[in-house]
Structure formats: C-alpha cells, structure tokens
Amino acid sequence: MWQQILQSVRSLEYPRRNAVLAPAALGAGGLLVCWLLSRRKIKTLAMGDGWWGSGERPPREKEDETIQCFQIETSDREIQELHQRLDQARYIPPLEGAAFQYGFNSTYLQRVVAYWRNQFDWRKQLEILNQYPHFKTTIEGIEVHFVHVKPSRVPKGQAARPLLMVHGWPGSFYEFYKIIPLLTDPAGQGLNEDVVFEVICPSIPGYGFSEAPHQQGFDTLAAARIFHKLMQRLGFQEFYVQGGDWGSRITTNMAQMLPKSVKGLHLNFIFITSGGLGMLVSLLLGAYVPWLVGLTREDSRRLFPYFEKNVYDLLRETGYLHIQATKPDTAGCALNDSPVGLAAYILEKFSTWTDKSFRNMDNGGLERKFSLDDLLTHVMIYWVTSSIVSSMRFYKENVSKNPNAAPDARVGVYVPTGLAAFPQELAHTPRSWAKKKFKNIVTYSYMPRGGHFAAFEEPELLAQDIRQLVKKVEHL
Ligand SMILES: *[C@@H]1O[C@H](CO)[C@@H](O)[C@H](O)[C@H]1NC(C)=O
Ligand SMILES: CC(=O)N[C@H]1CO[C@H](CO)[C@@H](O)[C@@H]1O
Fold it and tell me: Start and end of every Epoxide hydrolase N-terminal domain (predicted)?
C-alpha cells in the first residue's frame, strides 16, 4: 500500500511534458500522504498533571524527589489494641446450611479470628515483608510506597528487564511475594531461564503504605501518571508492565499514555468497556457456531451458558462494587473500626474470586490455595495503615461515569500485549473481543488453572506467561 502511494507520487515528479499539472498533482499527493500519515499516528492518552496533597498545591515549589528507604514497623501498642478489638468481637450464627452463600460464614470467621489472635505471628510476617527493599518518594503531593527487587545475578550477555507490577483491590504488593523470586532469581528457584527481571511493585495511592489522596478524583489515569513519574525517577526509559484487577487498568493506561516507554504489557485481567457489535453477535451465535463468530471452543466453554456464568454470577459477586462506587465512606467507617469485619469483607473475595464454587463450602475454600498467614497478612496491611476506606474510594472515582465516554475508552493500546486468561477469573474475555482495544496482542494464553489473584495463586504459571511475552517481544 505504502509502496504504491510513494510510487505514484514519484511518478508524478517527472512528467516534463506537463509542467503545470505536475506541481498541483505533487501538492495533492503530498496532502494525501500527510493525511495518511496522520491517520497512522498513534493516538495517546493525555498525561495531564495532578495534585493530591492536603490543601492547595504550593506555588511553583519544586517537589522533593528524593527516594527514602522504608521498613514496615508496628508498635506493640498497635498489636495490643488490635487484640483487644479481636477479643471484644460479637458474632451472630450463620443460617443453617448456608456455607458462604450469604457471605462469610461467621462460625468459620470465629476460627480465623482465634488463629489471628493466638497463633498468627505478625512479627514473623513483618520479617517476610521486609525481606525485600521498600522505598517511599513523594509524587504529586503524596508519598508513594514501592518494593524494588534487583536480581542477585544476571546471566552473561543479558540485562535485567525492569518490570512494574501493579496489584488491585482487595490485594496489595504482597500478592507478588511468591512471583518475585521466580522473576528476579530464576536460577535460585531451580529454573533454567536467561530472562531475568528487576521488579518494582508500588502500592496504589490509598492502598497499604502509599499515602491516600487528599483530593477528589484520583482515578486510574492519575495512578498511571504517578507510576510513570516513579519509573522516570528511578531512571527507567523503557520497561514492562504487568497487572490484574485495578492494576490491569492502570498499566493499560500507562501503555496508552507513553507507549514508547512501555516495551510490553502483560495482563491477567482484561478490561474492555464494550466489545461492540461483534461481541453481541458472538454472544448470540457463539454457543452454536463459535468458529463463525471468532470464538474458539475454549472461549465458548468458558462463556456459555452466558447468563449463568458471566451475568448472574457477576451480579451475585459485585454488590461490593456498587457500594464502593457510590458511598464508600459509609461502609468504610465500620470496616476501619472493626478488624473482624475487615477480615470478613476482604477474605470473602479471596474465597469466591479464587473459585466460584467455593461459595458452597463451609469455610469458603479459603485454605485450599492460601495459608491463613498469607491471608491475614493482606488484612493486616489494610488494618495497620487504615487504608480500607481510601482503597474503596478508588471505585467511586472510576466507576461512576459512562465508561464508554472515558478518555481511555477512545484510545487503542498499541504496545505488544500478552493476555493471560485464567479459567476462574470473574468473567472471560475472548481474544476476538480484546482485539478491539488491544491492537497488538502478541500472546493470548488459556491458563490451565487459577483465578483472580493470579500472582498469589499461580506464581509459576504467571511467571512463565510473562517470560513468554518478553521472549516474543525481543525475538529470543
Ligand atoms: C460454617 O463453618 C463451620 C466451620 O468451618 C462449619 O462447621 C459450619 O458447618 C459452617 N456453617 C454453615 C452454615 O455452613
Ligand atoms: C467510568 C468512570 O467513571 N471512569 C473514570 C475512571 O477513570 C478514568 C480514567 O481512567 C476517568 O477518565 C473516568 O471518567
């Protein structure tokens, strides 16, 4: 196509016989080329700027860009106070035979709380949390926390690939603690892999140890911009990004903002606002003739019966979303005041989002894939930082408007993208739907097992899939 246009423009250059027509034709050809070029130019998402600190932005004062080392610490008094609250909790019995269908089974909750009170060793978990280097730095008026792990050894002739990994709700940077060694030290984990990463896991502002925004309007675009500023401050020009849940939307926004900085985007949760007409047609016909509407057999297995699997199930599981997208502070008052309520609210998600059938299990299947130590560590990260309310507000800032009108809905994603579709994810997005938004899907994997908390549940599978993307992008 290009060749042809250039050729025809060139052939217009030498028609000596017609000296008058030539410049006119050249001008028209030039315009055509310009128009085509502008059409080919990739639309990016405006980066903008923001201020999330308390009060007015100080006039023209340069932000302190230093990066400080940080360690997670809690005082004995905080632990004592937590124990007092755990001791004073009150419970009502679950409905007979209800398992997790009405929410967290309070009989099982008492067991979790007894473990928390008597066996859970926060000091030991703190040692685990602090085994990797933590830092804080101020961006747009708030302190941003991140974990930064450099590889201990890099194979000869290789360079470590910087990789930013972003968590979601109700998770934290701790979701990545099992995948970090697989990515930064494959040899130490018995993996024969040349591709080694330098991993940066920030806490979304308002989550865990990142300060909460003091101003309204902190959405995924703002988070994406802040993480770009963080990576720039750390000196990375080009890097990979990975995310699930909110992390998926944030890293996608990063790829839309500065596509040149993002070498590859890997997602284990696929956010699309609408799949257009193609999606509608494939929903109507996909169960009968998947091949005709761009679906694979596996897509159709995961999608249908659609209302059962992807509509009713979603309705049953997303009441929290409506609360958090409308009046987060109200329910948040209770959760921030009661560690038992907080544990029930957070851990219920680790049950059903890992496997929907866990709803029918007395103990929500929680200990099938996770240890209580790991689960309670997540809860503690929210408790000791009082961050549940600010984490919930992120929904308010992102779900209240028309999603199709959001600026990021009108900009495609052109960076090389790897999509990992885990079978127990809340909803399945076939490649043919994702293509509308992600214009350069390099890998699309039907993962054999695992759900919403991919890095936490299936670190080996996720690490493998990230490496697969990097190898394709770099032609290794
Ligand atoms: C709640 O969990 C407890 C402990 O796991 C179990 O014994 C009980 O049967 C469950 N109750 C309901 C209503 O499912
Ligand atoms: C649907 C909605 O309210 N989206 C907001 C969330 O964040 C985007 C940017 O990522 C805003 O532009 C949207 O308005």
Answer: 68-176
Number of C-alpha atoms within 13 angstroms, CB side, residue 183?
31
Bond prior to 170 in cis (omega within 30° of 0): yes
The residue whose CA has the least distance to atom 14 of ligand 2 is 406
Instruction: Map out the domains of the chain with their CATH numbers.
Output: 2-38 (no CATH), 42-72+133-273+406-476 (3.40.50.1820), 77-129+318-387 (no CATH)
Taking the CA of residue 100 as reference, the ligand 1 atom at the shortest distance is: 14
pTM score: 0.90
How far does Cα 166 stand from its chain's mean position? 5
The closest alpha carbon to 165, from 273, 46, 254, belongs to 254
Tens of pLDDT, residues 375-429: 999 999 999 999 999 999 999 998 867 777 888 888 999 999 999 999 999 989 9
266 classed as catalytic: no
- Catalytic residue, chosen from 219, 345, 452, 465, is 452
Task: From 112, 362, 372, give the residue whose CB has the most ligand 1 atoms within 8 Å, as the site to mutate.
Answer: 362
Pairing of strands 239-243, 262-267: parallel
